[in-house]
Amino acid sequence: MVVKLDGKLPVIRRATRDDVDALAELIDRTVVQSNAPDYPPATLAELRAFANPARLLELLADRECFVAVADGRIVGTISLGGERLRQMYVAPEIQKGGLGRQLVEFLEAHARAQGIAELALHSSLTARGFYERMGYRMIEYLPQGVPTWLMTKRLSP
Q1: pLDDT by residue (tens digit) across 1-37?
Q2: 102-105 long-range CB contacts below 8 Å, 24 or more apart?
Q3: Burial, 20: exposed, middle or buried (Cβ in 10 Å; 0-12, 13-18, 19+)?
Q4: Which of the four pLDDT bands, split at 50, 70 and 90, describes residue 51?
Q5: CATH 3.30.70.20 matches 11-116
Q6: Torsion of CA 32, 105, 19, 151, to 10 degrees
Q7: Edge-to-edge strand list for the sheet holding 84-90
Q8: Model pTM greater than 0.70?
Q9: Helix axes 53-62 and 20-30, enclosed angle (nearest 10)
């Protein structure tokens, strides 16, 4: 299923400086609502601290960041940093509607067009099953800091 808000498909475009406040709000809200069952309050606080506009401005200069926009609001985001899928968030109220899949497929196609043959990512405990369904395989569990799973996927030509 692909997410439609008010009957329109989200548009995926490159993020801009003007998006950072909305991105910060989206990431913070998603961490609070979606990751709370899998992480203790101290870890959630660490994840939330990441989602501040100043830090996001730095990331825009360092990565290729994309946003999904529907009905004039940002409902998802995904980034590519080198050969890594980074920072994928979907608004909690539309999760499990297909936007995450749409974002990952978009980023994989973008990476392939740049000659990237394999993507790696650090999955949250919350998103691990999603990435497995998308064809990513676990390499190792990384318990230090914010616990994550290192995962990879070969991209077909």
Answers
A1: 455 556 677 999 999 999 999 999 999 999 999 999 9
A2: 102/2, 102/3, 102/10, 102/12, 102/68, 103/12, 103/66, 103/68, 103/76, 103/77, 103/78, 104/78, 104/134
A3: buried
A4: confident
A5: no
A6: 50
A7: 11-14, 64-70, 73-81, 84-90, 118-124, 148-154, 137-142
A8: yes
A9: 110
